[in-house]
């Protein structure tokens, strides 16, 4: 059984989120992953939770370093209370250029800082729930003041779980140390890489922290599917565009290196630096495409994904149909993915 998560466009306007969330819920998805890029992830999450009754909603992912851990904790606590336990706090680092230049916030070693951030959020949760004096001290954050007036008080449901975005081994181990779930990037969601690299790194982090749990792995491959073979081929072309561009960034090379394809990433990077954009597509072979882009019609895709991800991932991202006329076929595929 795979739990199934839907996504939404990063540029989706707040007024459109409710209708999208209702559609996602009607299709049988377990969760909606709400991005934070163009719009505020907390506001969009509230709109989605307001419009649904059973759908889980999570930020995928909130830009942690752009806001105080206390603000993230307060927002997550309110959304969890409002929804009766349907919210997951997803946190990620973004990149230094955006954190410093776009948000005007400090930057330091991202894995260590995010570890401190999650610790601070959990300390806030503990104070909210049990009235424990707030006293969190780390290299990155110190939180030691919480008057009763500002404490939102306990929940009637469990505290929000914390999902963390990660690509490289250091951040992946950090998720094992302090997180509940990991969201993988399309460039590191290939099942062999998840089995041989990501899972061991998570387990190393869990062991290092003396924890006893299995981190929920949310695989985020570029799934290409549709009602007909022609629609699948069109989705493959769109996924390929994203893959070609993304693999030109060294931060997204770990899975390329695992497969012995680092030279492809280096060639793509050289093209971007030299302005040879027209030469990039030819560098990504059909083998690379098939490795990173699972594909099949709605009648086929559930079997394709289960064969690859069962036993490796607990949850998988699955695209919402571009054409609502495909909703019935997508619903059947989602049912097969979720079947035991």
Description:
- This protein has about 350 residues and is α/β, with parallel strands linked by helices.
- The protein has one domain (about 5-230, about 295-340): Luciferase-like domain (TIM Barrel), CATH 3.20.20.
- The chain contains 13 helices and 13 strands.
- Strand 6 (about 135) and strand 7 (about 140-145) form a beta hairpin.
- The relative contact order is 0.12.
What's the topology here?
Elements: E1 3-6, H1 14-26, E2 31-34, H2 41-50, E3 56-59, E4 62-63, H3 69-83, E5 87-92, H4 96-102, H5 110-130, E6 136-137, E7 142-143, E8 161-166, H6 169-178, E9 181-184, H7 191-208, E10 216-219, E11 224-226, H8 229-246, H9 254-258, H10 262-274, H11 286-292, E12 295-297, H12 301-309, E13 315-317, H13 327-338
Helix pairs in contact: 1-2, 2-3, 3-5, 5-6, 6-7, 12-13
CATH architecture identity: Alpha-Beta Barrel
Largest sheet: 8 strands, parallel, barrel
Kindly report the spatial arrangement of strands forming the biggest sheet. Answer: 1-2-3-5-8-9-10-13
Give the mean pLDDT. 96
The fraction of residues in strands falls at: 5-15%
List the defining traits of the structure above.
two-stranded antiparallel sheet; TIM Barrel; 340 residues; 8-stranded parallel beta barrel; 13 helices; globular; alpha/beta; single chain
Can I get a quick summary?
By secondary structure, this protein is an alpha/beta fold. It is built from 13 helices and 13 strands.
